[in-house]
Design goal:
With about 240 residues, the protein is of the alpha+beta class. The protein is built from six helices and 17 strands. The protein binds uracil.
C-alpha cells in the first residue's frame, strides 16, 4: 500500500505537493469515491484512481540512461519528422519521457522514465543534482570569465544559480577551449546562453554526468536500465521516501 499523493505524483499527474492540493480540493477519487484525506493508502495495482473522473494508469516504473547522440530531438514526437530520443529505445513497452532536455546539437547523458515524481525532482534546482557538461567554446576564457560562469551569469530570464567552471584544455593559438561546467538548473539552452553571455559561444556540447550517473560503458545511441542500487541511491539523493 502506498500513499495516494505519491501514487499520483509517480503517475506524472503533478508534483507531490500539487497532488496533495488536488486531494484536498476533492478532485481525486479512489474506486469511484472522492477522497480528501492526505494520509489515504491505496494499492496502486488494484485500486482505480482517478483525477477529475479520469482514471490514471500506472505502469511498471522504468529508469533508462541514454547516451543521446547529436541530431536527435529530446521529445516524444517531432512535427518535422526528425528522429526523436524514443526512436533509440527498442523493446521498452512503457511510455517513458525524457527528464529535462538536451538540444538537437547536444550529445550526452539523458535520463528517461515514466516516474513523474522522480523526473520533477531531478529537474528541480533545490535538490542540487549536478548536471556536468563539457563544452568546446570559441576563444579561451580568462579566469575572470570562468569565475563569472561559476558564480552566476545574467541571462534574459535572470541570474543563473552558482555552479562550477573549469578550463580543461586551451588551444595554444587561443582559438578554442574545452570547459567543464557544472550547473544545477535546467533552463532552456542554459549552457549555450551562459557561454555566449561571457563572450565565448559554444561550438559543441556534451553532458557527461547527472549526479553520480555517468556515460561509462555506453556509446552514442546506446542506453541501459539503471541498476537497483543506482535507483536507490538516486532516490536517496532526491529525498524520496518509500511511503
Ligand atoms: N544547456 C544547453 O545550452 N543545451 C543543452 O542541451 C543542455 C544544457
Amino acid at each position: 500500500m502506498e500513499r495516494l499523493q505519491k501514487v499520483l505524483a509517480q503517475a506524472g499527474v503533478a508534483s507531490r505537493r500539487k497532488c496533495e492540493e488536488l486531494i484536498l480540493q476533492g478532485r481525486v477519487q479512489v474506486n469511484g469515491v472522492t477522497v480528501r484525506e492526505l494520509g489515504t493508502k491505496v494499492d496502486p495495482g488494484r485500486d482505480e484512481i482517478a483525477v477529475d473522473g479520469r482514471v490514471i494508469r500506472r505502469e511498471e516504473l522504468v529508469y533508462l540512461l541514454l547516451y543521446k547522440p547529436t541530431g536527435v530531438i529530446t521529445s516524444l514526437h517531432d512535427p518535422q519528422g526528425r528522429p526523436v530520443v524514443t526512436d533509440l529505445l527498442c523493446g521498452v513497452k512503457q511510455r517513458v519521457f525524457p527528464v529535462g532536455r538536451l538540444d538537437y546539437d547536444t550529445s550526452g547523458l539523458l535520463l528517461l522514465t515514466n516516474d513523474g515524481e522522480l523526473a520533477n525532482r531531478v529537474a528541480h534546482p533545490s535538490f542540487e543534482i549536478d548536471k556536468v557538461y563539457r563544452a568546446w567554446v570559441k576563444g579561451v576564457p580568462s579566469p575572470e570569465k570562468l569565475r563569472q560562469l561559476a558564480q552566476g551569469v545574467l541571462l534574459a530570464d535572470g541570474l543563473t544559480a552558482p555552479g562550477r567552471a573549469r578550463l580543461l584544455k586551451a588551444d595554444p593559438l587561443g582559438r578554442r577551449a574545452l570547459l567543464e561546467l557544472t550547473i544545477h538548473e535546467g533552463r532552456n539552452q542554459q549552457v549555450r546562453r551562459m557561454c555566449a553571455a561571457v563572450g565565448h559561444p559554444v561550438e559543441s556540447l556534451k553532458r557527461i554526468r547527472l549526479g553520480f550517473l555517468t556515460l561509462d560503458g555506453l556509446a552514442p545511441g546506446q542506453y541501459r536500465h539503471l541498476t537497483p542500487e543506482e535507483l536507490q541511491r538516486l532516490k536517496r539523493e532526491l529525498a524520496m521516501t518509500s511511503s
